[in-house]
């Protein structure tokens, strides 16, 4: 609340009243002693008392005067009375100078206190005014300038075979076939504002090169939330597709593949049912788990296991184990964890079937 007291009513601002108070104080303090013996000590006490009173009065008047009105409760700041306030301060300083003298240390100390309070008040006004201006003027909202929508970019990319391969890692006819299968068999759907073609293009754009969510946000002019939801939706459909296509054509391996039967190394590889190997994929892991992911090249990797047939089709893929593990450990872990889906070599055939029971996978260092 603003104090209504004016500087003109301050007893220190009126040198006549201040002088009378001074005489009265000196008479009260030195009434029991001789003036000649106690004048020095009484004068020091009087000066200190007046300095404290003047400091309190000056600070109160500065922070609560009507001219320098400032209400923090209502956040209203007024600086219209700066000129009149300066004149009142000059009159107050003149009265103090007449009372104490221009060179008196008490006068100079009181003036320094008042000026310091004035500077603090002005600085506080500027800070509040700046804050009020920022609140009054809202920040301009960033509006994305869309030169080409996401679906327009997808369709334009599909018209160029090379661009389609660079962005999606597949040719346009493969994109169309994949999109058709995901829509008709595995539940890929369009939403109100995003078509299934754009969602698939968004997914392939992120997993192909690859690209992070922020890059896809910039490329497709979609929010990060939309990018994340569409990516997960397409990923779920692709996982369903993977269960159907990542599998052996002949789970029983009853025939010898023509590429093996007609090879110059036949018949030594007639019982081979595929090739198996592991590959190291770089990963980011928490600091406390870094040790188990360090491979022999001092890279943080995960050893992924893959099996393919002689048509170069993947028949089994597993994420594997941390990169420090040996390939044999990765194979054993995959056979235990994914026993139902692992393409095990068939058991010995019944009598009458011309197939050697010792089927095997080819590896980079020999049969497993």
Features:
368 residues, alpha+beta, four-stranded mixed beta sheet, two-stranded antiparallel sheet, 13 helices, 6 strands, 51% helix, elongated, disordered N terminus, nucleus, DDE Tnp4 domain-containing protein, HARBI1-like
Architecture overview:
- Residues 1-48 and 53-81 have low confidence and may be disordered.
- It is built from 13 helices and six strands.
- The chain has helices at 15-29, 35-64, 82-100, 105-136, 150-158, 161-168, 172-185, 196-207, 213-220, 224-245, 258-261, 290-293, 327-337; strands at 70-71, 76-77, 272-282, 301-308, 314-322, 360-362.
- Strand 1 and strand 2 form a beta hairpin.
- The protein is of the alpha+beta class and 368 residues long.
- The strands form two sheets. It has a four-stranded mixed sheet with strand order 5-4-3-6, with helices on one face. A two-stranded antiparallel ribbon has the order 1-2.
- Helix content is 51%, strand content 10%.
How much is the radius of gyration in Å?
45 Å
Overall pLDDT level: 76
Q: Strand order within the widest sheet?
A: 5-4-3-6
Please give the share of residues in helix.
40-55%
Distance between the termini: 88 Å
Number of distinct helices: 13
Domain DUF8040: 147-238
GO molecular function, one term: nuclease activity
Cofactor: a divalent metal cation
Main location: nucleus
């Amino acid at each position: 609340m603003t104090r209504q007291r004016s500087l003109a009513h301050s007893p220190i601002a009126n040198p006549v009243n201040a002088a009378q108070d001074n005489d009265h104080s000196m008479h009260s303090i030195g009434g029991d002693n001789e003036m000649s013996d106690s004048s020095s000590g009484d004068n020091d006490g009087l000066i200190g008392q007046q300095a404290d009173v003047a400091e309190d009065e000056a600070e109160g008047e500065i922070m609560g005067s009507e001219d320098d009105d400032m209400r923090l409760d209502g956040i209203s700041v007024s600086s219209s009375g700066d000129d009149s306030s300066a004149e009142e301060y000059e009159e107050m300083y003149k009265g103090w100078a007449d009372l104490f003298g221009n060179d008196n240390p008490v006068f100079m100390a009181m003036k320094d206190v008042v000026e310091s309070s004035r500077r603090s008040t002005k600085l506080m006004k500027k800070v509040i005014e700046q804050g009020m201006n920022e609140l009054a003027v809202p920040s301009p909202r960033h509006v994305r300038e869309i030169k080409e929508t996401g679906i327009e970019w997808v369709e334009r990319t599909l018209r160029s075979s090379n661009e389609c391969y660079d962005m999606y890692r597949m040719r346009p006819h493969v994109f169309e076939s994949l999109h058709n299968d995901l829509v008709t068999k595995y539940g890929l759907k369009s939403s109100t504002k995003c078509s299934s073609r754009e969602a698939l293009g968004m997914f392939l754009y992120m997993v192909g090169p690859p690209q992070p969510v922020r890059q896809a946000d910039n490329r497709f002019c979609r929010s990060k939330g939309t990018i994340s939801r569409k990516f997960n939706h397409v990923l779920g459909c692709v996982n369903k597709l993977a269960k159907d296509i990542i599998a052996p054509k002949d789970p029983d391996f009853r025939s010898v593949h023509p590429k093996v039967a007609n090879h110059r190394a036949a018949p030594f590889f007639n019982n081979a049912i595929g090739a198996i190997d592991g590959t190291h994929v770089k990963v980011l892991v928490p600091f406390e788990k870094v040790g188990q992911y360090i491979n022999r090249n001092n890279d943080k990797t995960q050893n992924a296991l893959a099996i393919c047939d002689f048509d170069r089709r993947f028949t089994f893929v597993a994420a594997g184990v941390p990169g420090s593990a040996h390939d044999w450990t990765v194979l054993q872990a995959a056979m235990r964890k994914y026993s139902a889906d692992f393409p095990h070599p068939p058991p010995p055939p019944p009598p009458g079937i011309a197939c050697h029971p010792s089927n095997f996978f080819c590896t980079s260092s020999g049969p497993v």
